[in-house]
Every structure is written in structure tokens, then in C-alpha cells.
Design goal:
Layout: E1 19-24, E2 28-33, E3 43-44, H1 48-63
Antiparallel strand pairs: 1-2, 2-3
Bound molecules: zinc ion.
Length: about 70
């Protein structure tokens, strides 16, 4: 199992849904809500060490509610 998934994530600040790590192209990651699609900023990485670090940063943002809504203004 990937070490990324050992990080505890709070529920989505918008809808209370489940946050999930997403990776794009093997160079960046972010956390997205499975229910409403809100997400954190993307974090680029260039090595496995950076990947773990960026995952922790993304989790920190998610857990303090710094999450971008897919429906701004609502
Ligand atoms: Zn949500």
C-alpha cells in the first residue's frame, strides 16, 4: 500500500464528503472530494521524497479547510 494513504484526512469542508488523494501524470498531486469535486491546490514533485512531502502539505491544506470549491460564489 502506498504511504500516501497513511495520512489521515478530514471530511470535506464543503459537503462533509470523503477526501481522496489524486495524482496527475506522476508529477503532481492534490486532494479531491469524492462527493462535490472540491480540491486543494496542486503540488508538483520531482522525487519520491518530495512526493511524500507534498502529500503531507496537501493534507495539511485540506485539513485546515483551504480547499477550492468547484462552484465558486454558491
Ligand atoms: Zn465535498
Amino acid at each position: 500500500m502506498d504511504s500516501l494513504f497513511n495520512i489521515a484526512l478530514q471530511d470535506c469542508p464543503y459537503c462533509g464528503g470523503t477526501g481522496c488523494f489524486e495524482e496527475e501524470g506522476g508529477w503532481c498531486l492534490y486532494i479531491q472530494c469524492l462527493e462535490c469535486g472540491s480540491q486543494t491546490a496542486e503540488f508538483a514533485y520531482h522525487s519520491p521524497e518530495e512526493r511524500s512531502e507534498m502529500a503531507a502539505q496537501a493534507a495539511r491544506l485540506w485539513n485546515i479547510g483551504k480547499v477550492i470549491s468547484p462552484h465558486p460564489g454558491e
